[in-house]
Amino acid sequence: xxxxxxxxxxxxxxxxxxxxxxxxxxxxxxxxxxxxxxxxxxxxxxxxxxxxxxxxxxxxxxxxxxxxxxxxxxxxxxxxxxxxxxxxxxxxxxxxxxxxxxxxxxxxxxxxxxxxxxxxxxxxxxxxxxxxxxxxxxxxxxxxxxxxxxxxxxxxxxxxxxxxxxxxxxxxxxxxxxxxxxxxxxxxxxxxxxxxxxxxxxxxxxxxxxxxxxxxxxxxxxxxxxxxxxxxxxxxxxxxxxxxxxx
Amino acid sequence: xxxxxxxxxxxxxxxxxxxxxxxxxxxxxxxxxxxxxxxxxxxxxxxxxxxxxxxxxxxxxxxxxxxxxxxxxxxxxxxxxxxxxxxxxxxxxxxxxxxxxxxxxxxxxxxxxxxxxxxxxxxxxxxxxxxxxxxxxxxxxxxxxxxxxxxxxxxxxxxxxxxxxxxxxxxxxxxxxxxxxxxxxxxxxxxxxxxxxxxxxxxxxxxxxxxxxxxxxxxxxxxxxxxxxxxxxxxxxxxxxxxxxxxxxxxxxxxxxxxxxxxxxxxxxxxxxxxxxxxxxxxxxxxxxxxxxxxxxxxxxxxxxxxxxxxxxxxxxxxxxxxxxxxxxxxxxxxxxxxxxxxxxxxxxxxxxxxxxxxxxxxxxxxxxxxxxxxxxxxxxxxxxxxxxxxxxxxxxxxxxxxxxxxxxxxxxxxxxxxxxxxxxxxxxxxxxxxxxxxxxxxxxxxxxxxxxxxxxxxxxxxxxxxxxxxxxxxxxxxxxxxxx
Lengths: 247, 485
What we know:
Chain A is an all-alpha fold. Chain A is built from 8 helices and no strands. Chain A starts with 16 loop residues before the first helix and ends in a 23-residue tail after the last helix. Chain B is about 75% helix and about 0% strand. In chain B, helix 3 packs across helix 20 (about 475-480), helix 10 (about 245-270) packs parallel to helix 13 and helix 12 (about 280-300) runs parallel beside helix 18. Chains A and B meet through helix 1, helix 2, helix 4 and helix 7 of A and helix 1, helix 4, helix 5, helix 6 and helix 8 of B.
């Protein structure tokens, strides 16, 4: 069933690649023809977005589409990231190999002290800027995630600032808050996910803040790749691992 | 906010998503939370099914933004039927899983690993359930893409959960195939948006014209969906993935997940112009799947591999009837969906029953299963009933579906199609008998080992098999729901 170890090396079967190359070229040509076909482009939705922007609560078109007009897509995207962490953690086995303990380098340590506060500031700015120009939750989350990866690189002592038990709730904060706020909108007589001006701007910023925090944490947790010690085990704690929980 | 009169369209999606997050937050294996949300989700789905039956098509504008600017959900008869099907199979699998994870605990040091598996299972399964419902109900092609991503990722996670090398290899292959399918679908969505200027599914379908960009878009979307549905010859990834997963996961993958992408294919291909032009293509591939899948199923040594190859064959039936849809007055659509539902119940029951054999005996070699009937009469009976429905014996749902296939095909003068269906049933009978003969063999076990399998596992398998049989008796109800257009 499995063919591990019998992999074909690229050079001894070079002739096999020719028909595949030919097929791919044919496919590319068909794509190009379809793309360049004259008179087949519709107007798109930009005009409609502009017309509804005032009711959307924010000045930026992209943010209005992502967090209001098509907020349902964004809600599900938050779940995609959370799902990524769930799947990666599910692959980790308690009896698996010990995590490698990297040597703490002086350069990396001082770089962290320099960069991480700056990255948190830049991330927060991007979040705020998203309301009327390029930016928003995903960009801010990416920067925060980068800061997390930097800290994880050498299991920095700065990680202790973030409480161990807060990791899973932190990952869930964005999706859970997004979902709860959308259901709450129904309690006020609206549809699911409905929020309009003047409160819309405030709600969007709050949603984006929670989402950015969780996105950043998700990305860092994906890099760490290891779930925190779970209570379900046999109670054997491993004190040697209280540094670098995320690994 | 929630009343019997307001639309329940969103709750089959929201309830499992909420449940998934709460399960993930739990420190212990969240069996109770998982089961609670499984019951809640099936309840909401059944209410939605009843609403569509009673009041006609339901639709819902997310955030009160109407398409094309916003995203709308839409439940016609077909969508409501799929959501209801998922509710029934999903509930049976959830109850089974509760017993399954309990029965696997043996008190030794491997329990730590098993508990970790259960802890991951519940959030992944609920998220998958929510994403499937989202897929069935979505009225927006980009939103469908996101649901496809959620379905694919959680399925891959569930496949890899058993942790054995074959399942990890299968899960990796499944991930790559699924990603390729998703990307192809997304590229098609891009072309659709470029030419139609909207992402609303109904608007796109009604504006299909035979220009190169539209043909390209449709080809990309269809290729992606066929790859994900594992229609012959794209089936290569399916049997190892479905057979090596944990047993409840096998039932989920075979009974539900492949139906999601098949349903989308149906959504894009229900236009008559399209069916008249190239409707024979899915039918021919379907015929190939029926023959090849049945042949492979017959030659397997392991029970779960046999059932998995049977899925390859049964997917063929889901596509072989596409030419029948060209006549809107015919029962082609009804036959189609009837087949999908009864396959979901029957195949779910067979995988669940096979799982009880595997857990009890420690293996699933068909030739060594003799005597299992004596230990587990309930799940042996469930497996046999599921097999009867696959073969299409009355009064099962499979019988109604095949009867509708054959009469519609003959009514439209498509004799070759009726012939494929009848011959396919003979092939199905061959491999089902091979498995059932071993399970129901009169040979007795030398000594009677202690029963490890929880009663809830056997009975949930039987309940699902009985549902497959019951489908033949309550046929007017699903057909009426299917008729809501």
